[in-house]
Write a structure and sequence with these properties.
Layout: H1 2-22, H2 30-33, E1 43-44, E2 51-52, E3 60-64, H3 65-71, H4 76-80, E4 86-91, E5 97-101, E6 115-119, E7 122-124, E8 140-147, H5 151-154, E9 161-167, E10 176-186, E11 192-204, E12 208-219, E13 224-225, E14 236-247, E15 253-267, E16 271-272, E17 274-275, E18 278-280, E19 282-301, E20 305-326, E21 330-351, E22 357-372, E23 375-383, E24 386-393, E25 395-412, E26 417-440, E27 445-471, E28 474-485, H6 492-502, E29 513-526, E30 529-547, E31 554-573, E32 579-593, H7 597-602, E33 618-631, E34 634-645, E35 648-649, E36 656-657, E37 660-671, E38 674-681, E39 697-698, E40 704-712
Parallel strand pairs: 6-9, 13-18
Antiparallel strand pairs: 1-2, 3-8, 4-5, 6-7, 8-9, 10-11, 10-40, 11-12, 12-14, 14-15, 15-19, 16-39, 17-18, 19-20, 20-21, 21-22, 21-23, 22-25, 23-24, 24-26, 25-26, 26-27, 27-28, 28-29, 29-30, 30-31, 31-32, 32-33, 33-34, 34-37, 35-36, 37-38, 38-40
Length: 713
């Protein structure tokens, strides 16, 4: 930990010391950006081509890196709180977080994700696991969030939406250096802090450049462990680095190579036994994650179109091992090592024409596997009139898949109407190499299961979109689109135990599930006020939902899910120069129907007409940003945000987490290339659980108060 902090700090100081020799002045222009809320049009790639955000006929949210930094947002969980209809489903550790968008929630620990994730142009996924990538936001360009299925262009897993984390590319002309230091104190816990550094070096003016970022953060623990007697036992630290090499040898050709590394280490986990005060009851525990990612992007201008290629390989490890006591369950020991290797290739051809027709066609290939599984010991758990259950899982899920896709937009009546038609054909071969067992401890009976299961599936996913532009400042759009997710394959021994407990006859292999989304929306600018509304209805047939009838998870189709809701966003650039206000919210009904009777009888929180667990009926967020000149070249920067989520139920046991509201504030002074800020996160020190998975509690991090100092060159 000290070595990583020293590396990040030394890099920042070294860059600062050498700045005058290589850097140019990078004076900030706060009047034009309003501290990240740009007055210039925001350019996004939601439809896999550059477009002004206001012209995208979809429910898309884009938040710039400067705005996120000004608000103190440094991780995806905090971004989710700003997105209407999105919530955190569950978290075990830094590397094992699940999210849902628009009520499309399925699991806390097992099954493929219902949200697609992209790191730059690389499609991040873990076959058989729903976890989001861990990311560091320093030197970030923007985050884009697509709400609703985006299976045509983004494919597998984008059942409820897609999240794209886009980092800054190397600048071919200007040298840049920056470093940031933070420190904070935690209410009832240990202090924390971090160091970040960025450099950009043009190697050959206009032809070749290198950009690198390194970050280290330490998070103070706040929960006392009564089993070991250690105070503030759940501390964590993380280290990340990325480097990009960009070459443009000709006006037509661009080649960019990138390497990412991210690792986090946490004692115990984010699941707390009791909340008032926060207490752990674990005799041992680690929660670590680590990944290394290599990507290569190539683009070549063919005049009529641009040929683009993204190649990537990731090795990702997530390990959560812990044991102790859970009320209602008793003593437990859990060992959960996972390792994913994933290679994918995305080749696409996008039109360059300025005419009425624009299009993109592509080919995608993936070869990925996830090895590992959860092994547990539950000596107090009753099974068939006896006590004690133990499971062992060391399985391998492999997915080899390919897809062809296309999307075309034709503009009619001088741009009054745009008609878009798209589709994606996807085919996958999935294998499950099983090495598992169930042990009835008191009876001394061991039931092993070894073998290989295979599944082959294909799906076609269309998209139709019509947008009408009655004025330069507004549009009305409607869309019908289909999203899909791969079918789960579960351990035979675990599925047998679940069938015995439920009285069901689930197969250990499930077909893919699909979701049809019907949406209408409006985007309009009223001078200094921008408004976006979207209403949607979706039909999710044979939805695969995670069940845990024997404290071991299975992912199976239990019934249908019907959802309807309304998203709203508003941005107001107020008459007070420099002050921008934003608000977003969602209301929805996401209900389960046609539930298998045995499931509804055994797990009543999954009965017909119930709100789907893992979803909240209401979400809302408000934020304010102010930048003003206070004289002598100094700018005052003030940012505040508040997010609200109504109660949310756990799919594990139906336990409700109550409504929650969390606010944060930041105030700073900036002059030229220097900025000093004071901040507070969770300013009201809310300790209401965010979720209650597995008989435990995930709580917000307590109130922190800290300082941040950043220097740019």
């Amino acid at each position: 930990m000290r070595r990583d902090l020293a590396l990040a700090t030394a890099m920042g100081l070294a860059l600062a010391a050498n700045a005058p020799a290589v850097a140019q002045d990078q004076a900030s222009d706060s009047s034009s950006t309003q501290d990240g809320y740009a007055s210039d049009p925001i350019i996004v790639t939601a439809q896999r081509r550059d477009q002004v955000l206001a012209d995208v006929p979809q429910a898309v949210q884009a938040i710039g890196g400067e705005a996120l930094q000004s608000m103190g947002v440094e991780q995806l969980q905090d971004v989710i709180a700003l997105v209407p209809s999105a919530t955190v489903g569950s978290t075990i550790s830094v590397g094992s977080n699940t999210f849902q968008i628009r009520g499309v929630a399925a699991s806390e620990t097992d099954g493929d994700a219902t949200v697609g994730f992209y790191l730059d142009n690389f499609a991040f996924s873990m076959p058989g696991r729903p976890y989001a990538p861990t990311t560091d936001f320093y030197d970030l360009d923007r985050v884009e969030i697509l709400r609703g299925p985006s299976g045509t262009l983004y494919g597998l897993g984008s059942l409820g939406g897609t999240i794209k984390v886009l980092t800054n590319d190397p600048d071919l002309y200007d040298a840049e250096l920056s470093t940031r230091m933070t420190a904070n104190v935690t209410s009832g816990g240990e202090p924390g802090g971090g160091a970040d550094a960025m450099f950009n070096v043009p190697i050959s003016d206009g032809k070749l450049a290198l950009r690198g970022v390194v970050s280290y953060k330490t998070v103070g623990g706040f929960a006392d462990n009564i089993a070991t007697g250690k105070d503030d036992a759940n501390d964590a630290n993380s280290f990340s680095a990325r480097v990009k090499l960009r070459a443009e040898p000709t006006e037509r050709l661009m080649i960019q190579l990138a390497a990412w590394h991210n690792r986090s280490n946490q004692d115990f986990s984010n699941r707390i036994t009791t909340t008032e005060p926060p207490v752990l009851d674990q005799t041992f525990g680690i929660a670590n994650s680590r990944y290394t990612l290599f990507t290569g992007d190539i683009s070549y201008d063919l005049d009529f179109a641009t040929l683009l290629s993204t190649t990537g390989y990731i090795k990702n490890k997530v390990i959560v091992n812990n044991g102790g006591f859970i009320p209602g369950i008793g003593d437990f020991a859990s060992f959960w090592p996972l390792e994913t290797k994933n290679f994918n290739q995305d080749l696409r051809l996008a039109s360059n024409s300025n005419g009425p027709l624009s299009w993109i066609v592509g080919f995608f290939y993936q070869d990925g596997e996830t090895k590992g599984g959860q092994s547990v010991q539950l000596p107090d758990f009753p099974v068939g009139g006896q006590l004690g259950l133990a499971t062992f899982n060391d399985n391998t899920i492999n997915s080899k898949a390919w897809a062809v896709y296309g999307d075309a937009t034709y503009s009619l009546m001088d741009g009054l109407v745009d008609f878009t038609l798209g589709g994606r054909y996807y085919e996958e071969k999935r294998t499950f190499d099983e090495n598992s067992s169930i042990t009835l401890i008191e009876a001394g009976v061991v039931v092993p299961t070894v073998g290989v299961d295979r599944a082959k599936n294909n799906t076609f996913n269309p998209r139709v979109n019509i947008s009408i532009h009655p004025a330069d400042d507004g549009m009305i759009y409607g869309e019908v689109a289909k999203g899909f997710r791969s079918g789960a394959i579960t351990s035979t021994s675990i599925i047998a135990g679940a069938n015995g407990a439920l009285g069901t006859n689930f197969d250990n292999s499930s077909p893919p599930d699909s979701l049809w989304n019907y949406e209408a929306g409006i985007k309009w600018s009223f001078g200094q006020m921008d408004v976006a509304l979207s209403a949607y209805y979706f039909d999710w047939a044979d939805a695969q939902i995670e069940l845990s009838p024997t404290l071991q998870s299975i992912v199976v189709p239990i019934g249908d899910v019907k959802g309807k809701g309304l998203d709203a966003e508003i941005t107001w650039r107020t008459p007070l120069q420099g002050l921008t206000l934003q608000a977003a919210g969602n209301i929805n009904e996401t209900e389960i129907e046609n539930v298998i009777p045995e499931v509804a009888a055994a797990l009543p929180w999954l009965s017909n007409g119930s709100q789907l667990p893992g979803t909240a009926e209401k979400t809302a967020s408000v934020s304010a940003s102010y930048v003003g000149d206070v004289g002598n070249g100094w700018d005052l920067k003030i940012n505040g945000r508040y997010s609200y989520r109504s109660r949310q139920q756990s799919v594990f046991d139906g336990a409700y987490a109550p409504w929650n509201g969390i606010g944060s504030a930041r105030i700073g002074l900036a002059k030229d290339d220097f900025e000093f800020s004071i901040f507070s996160n969770n300013i009201g020190n809310s300790d209401r659980p965010i979720s209650r998975p597995g008989g435990q509690n995930q709580v917000p991090y307590p109130r922190t108060i800290g300082i941040s100092v950043e220097k740019r060159f």
